[in-house]
Amino acid sequence: MVALVTPMDTSGELDLTAWDRLLDFHLSEGTDGIVVAGTTGESPALSFEEIETLAARAAARCRGRIPVVVGVGMSSTAGTIERTRSFSRLGVDAVMAVTPYYSKPPQEGLYRHFLAVAEASAVPVILYNVPSRTGVDLLPATIERLAVHPSIVAIKEATGSLARGREILGSCGANFALLSGDDASFLALMGIGARGVISVSANVVPRRMHDACAAALSQDMGRAAGIDATLQALHRDLFIEASPIPVKWAVAQLGLMGTTLRLPLVDLTPAHYELVRRAMRAAGIDTKDKAA
Question: One of 101, 156, 248, 273 is an active-site residue; which one?
Fold first, then answer.
């Protein structure tokens, strides 16, 4: 699944024409699911109404073809519940709720927060743990408690820790899916039982990420590793600055959208252009004569 970037025009407004173009690109290139308004989609900089527009548009365009997930997480439980109630009724297939950032709640607070989200949602809920961004870590014991709720079906685990993955897989049962949230280590996590990845790199190489995941799920780890070896530079260099700065620049090189971000994020430093271009070339992408 792709953690989809959010295109904006030069004035900083949503570029819905480019949004449709991105959705069509992923539908044609084998992406297995769309995640709207995640970290890569600049969710903290998007308004309620903007996320609603993006999610409804994606759900309508992708309906019956691939699932659409929308991010609902905020630092407050009340705000997360409000978004969950509204966005889960837009025709999406699931919502994804990140751990409440900045407030750093204890594990009991996280447990109650996610239970409240699950009770408010009309669709399945994916937990999202990315402590490097949020300042709080959803621990395996708490995940195990949450996994018994019938609406909580998966976690996007972005620590990159195989030990953490094994602990979740060992305690949460076969009906609860572990998804990687770290491109650099997703294949290793799939090798021990994760069912896929919510990917930044898939913004740029959706077909190759799909093929690597499909090979891993069919137990052809040799083929999966061969594909992933060509993508490691991309996995690394799309984080040379805070994501989604580099990946938005890279997608713009494909001619699909512009590079505009919203403050406090700014454009990719020009000194990094060639580094990202080299990573794209290593992944098999021709970067010549593309839009800047």
Answer: 156
Q: What is the pLDDT of residue 46?
A: 98
Q: Give every residue of the chain whose pLDDT is below 50, as ranges.
A: 289-292
Instruction: In whole angstroms, give the CA distance from residue 141 to residue 41.
Output: 29
* Catalytic site residue from 104, 128, 248, 290: 128
Say which amino acid occupies 155: I
The CATH number given to whatever domain includes residue 144 is 3.20.20.70
Give the model's pLDDT for residue 287.
73
Question: Does 128 qualify as catalytic in the annotation?
Answer: yes
Q: Is the dihedral of CA 163, 168, 170, 175 positive or negative?
A: negative
**Which residue carries 């699950």 as its tokens?**
118
Domain range enclosing 134? 2-230
Preceding amide of 150 cis, omega within 30: no
